[in-house]
Specification:
about 375 residues, mainly beta, 2 domains, 8-stranded antiparallel beta sheet, about 45% strand, rod-shaped
């Protein structure tokens, strides 16, 4: 019987696995692989309106295998980042995509893990599924922001973005690592975008039980050259809570002698978002009457769910036996479209003969009946 050299056999299997791995993970030498260039569509512009706190460059040469298939396959990369001062991060952006059979139908969940450095400066501490700093955070495909960048006919590239479920604070002067991968059944193959130039900090590292790559193996030992991964970290500060103005009350003056000054009160309130503060002012009044005054006529810093009482006075019109209606308008000083109104009604009686006035003074109910009949 022929003897088998187990060590030789294991070596052949390892070499075979690496060859297969380099075929699925690296497409840099094939015709359909995007080449990095400063004047092609493969230079990816930054996300507009985002505060980028770490930019590892989104320009890509191709996709490197980044996938966990529960049936067998696993392939992970990690890349490093560093802040000089304590820095918050709540958004992650990266180049990701698919190739191989059914690549256009790729719709995996994607996961992200963060690690502290292992102390050597060349590798993270921990495994992607058990990271040393935070995660893994996993996101359904439908919940991931995506922008189609390129479909080569054999592979597809997206700019992908997620909002982390919590804001992470990274300590200044400490080195960290990030790993991003898709989770789904092969095929298709999911990949994380990479580029050879520039290398920021340390080159990317790899890990895979399936491909017998110890966590963590230098990328040079896998691909034959150093490379970096395409990702950006951003911090999008939440907008302050929004105030909203609302008014409470209505004003009605009846039996007001022409030219008399009358007063009343109403309330201006902040009915916006909890934690907000309202700056407000009186911005409108009825067109009738003279010398409208408001005390106060404006205010600042009115807290959420609080109100301020406003006293209003006006000199009644000179017309007798008239009914006047209108509105007092209050405005959010920082948002002219945010307003509220208080309805106002004023009634002036007519001058009556002395004898009739005496009768009405003795029988006030009759006065009210007559007012209802003739006004």
């Amino acid at each position: 019987m022929k003897k088998i050299n187990l060590y030789k056999g294991a070596g052949v299997l390892l070499i075979t696995a690496l060859l297969i791995f380099s075929t699925v993970a690296v497409t840099a030498d094939t015709k359909d692989t995007p080449k990095i260039s400063s004047d092609t569509t493969h230079t990816v512009p930054n996300v507009i309106g985002e505060d980028i706190v770490w930019d590892n460059i989104m320009d890509y040469d191709g996709l490197a295998a980044a996938q966990y298939d529960p049936a067998a396959l696993d392939a992970y990369q990690a890349d490093d980042f560093y802040f000089e001062v304590d820095t918050d991060v709540n958004d992650v952006h990266w180049i990701g995509g698919y190739w191989n059979t059914n690549y256009q139908q790729g719709a995996f969940d994607w996961c992200i893990s963060f690690y502290v450095d292992d102390g050597t400066g060349t590798a993270p501490s921990g495994h992607p599924q058990t990271p040393s700093y935070a995660g893994p955070f996993c996101f359904a495909w439908n919940d991931i922001g995506k922008e189609l960048i390129q479909d080569t006919g054999t592979s597809i590239y997206y700019r992908l973005s997620v909002i982390l479920p919590e804001t992470l604070t990274f300590t200044g002067s400490e080195k960290y690592w990030i790993s991003i991968w898709g989770e789904g059944a092969f095929p298709p193959q999911s990949g994380w975008g990479y580029h050879q130039i520039p290398i920021t900090l340390n080159p990317a590292v790899w890990g895979s039980d399936y491909f017998v790559l110890p966590f963590w193996t230098p990328g040079f030992d896998v691909l034959g050259y150093d490379h970096d991964m395409c990702f950006q970290l951003t911090y999008d500060e939440a907008p302050p809570p929004e105030p909203a103005i609302c008014c409470e009350g209505e004003i009605e003056w009846t039996d007001v002698k022409p030219g008399d000054t009358v007063t009343a009160t109403f309330e201006v309130c902040n009915c916006g978002e909890e934690g907000s503060f309202l700056n407000w002012e009186i911005c409108g009044e009825p067109e009738w009457g003279e010398n409208w005054t408001f005390d106060p006529a404006s205010g600042t810093g009115l807290a959420y769910d609080e109100c301020v009482e406003v006293e209003v006075s006006v000199e009644a019109p000179e017309e007798e036996n008239e009914e006047f209606e209108g509105e007092i308008e209050a405005c959010n000083s920082d948002d002219p479209d945010d307003t509220c109104t208080v309805p106002v009604r004023l009634v002036t009686p007519c001058d009556l003969p002395v004898f009739l006035e005496l009768i009405l003074q003795r029988f006030p109910i009759l006065r009210q009946i007559l007012l209802q009949l003739f006004l």
